[in-house]
Amino acid sequence: MSEPKGYVEKSYERDTRYINDRITADGAESGWKAEPGRYRLVAARACPWANRTIIVRRLLGLEPVLSMGLTGPTHDSDSWTFDLDPGGLDPVLGIPKLKDAYEKRQPGYPRGITVPAVVEIESGKVVTNDFAPMTLDFSTEWRQYHRDGAPDLYPQALREEMAPVMKRIYTEINNGVYRCGFAGEQSSYEDAYDRLFTALDWVSERLANQRYLMGDTITEADVRLFTTLVRFDPVYHGHFKCNRQKLSEMPVLWAYARDLFQTPGFGDTVDFEQIKKHYYVVHRDVNPTGIVPKGPDLSGWGTAHGREALGGRPFGDGTAPGAVPEGERVPTEHNPWVGADGQLTVRTPGV
């Protein structure tokens, strides 16, 4: 998700006005029907909100029916751009800037150009950039296109319990790190800091005796927490001043994060270099020099976590996702735990 021009505010409030159309199984209400080859997911590996969609799409095996375009890790005040692609053009949409797809949908689009976004390929229009329901719809409205063995990330029986858990994770943790980093006054920062670590202590207590947030299997809730945790030490601890402790100094959350990272579909989507470059280069009012730190040491992500002792089956009655498509592999030099074939080089016992 890109941010509006100028990041630091007296007390940071995220603009949550999105193009909130839904792509549904029959398209009856929205006019947007889930169909193979009709849409393209535009994401950025740097962005935690977009990283959610990359993980869920991979876990569910939607790659053959929903193509993915990846922007570069940095952007200007105008738009995310396709500077990683030959000629600086998305090879399917044929555009240099994601803004072009927003303008196709609404000329003079007045808000931030954000990722993730789903674009209808034929019209070139953004269908939705409302990231919260997007992945839930991948689980429900795209179900007929899931791979054999896809996990149930949004179990019907758990949805009522999941709702407040995911809400607190979003308001206090996912968005909480931004409230710390973009606070323009000491009191606002300290309030955000206290709220963030109160919530991290809460999830730590929840995870002390169960392997995943909702019990024995991975759900959407775990995906949402993971994308913040994996960025914590590389970015949020220093850049956003979330420095009571590093993730690696919080035993339960560090073990939990490593467990997920070592699970196919999670760690193989993480590009640490792009993550650091995005935050440290783009947020010039937070980091005026644009210098990107060399650290931290990433070797710990592949170490044993011991969470298998809590039992559980990561994919429930399903199976791990298959090979990473060749064009979607994270470079080994950007994530040392990803091999040349795009697969994780570490595996958690029981996965």
UniProtKB/TrEMBL annotation:
The keyword Transferase applies. Keywords: Transferase. It comes from the Bacteria. Transmembrane segments: none annotated. InterPro entries: Glutathione-S-Trfase_C-like, Glutathione-S-Trfase_C_sf, Glutathione_S-Trfase, GST_Omega-like_C, GST_Omega/GSH. One of its GO terms (molecular function) is glutathione transferase activity. Residues 311-339 are annotated as: Disordered. PROSITE patterns: GST_CTER. Glutathione binds at W80. Residues 140-279 form the GST C-terminal domain. Pfam families: GST_C_2. The active site is at C47, Y178. One of its GO terms (cellular component) is cytoplasm. The record marks Y236, Y279 as: Lowers pKa of active site Cys. This is Putative glutathione S-transferase. It comes from Calidifontibacter indicus.
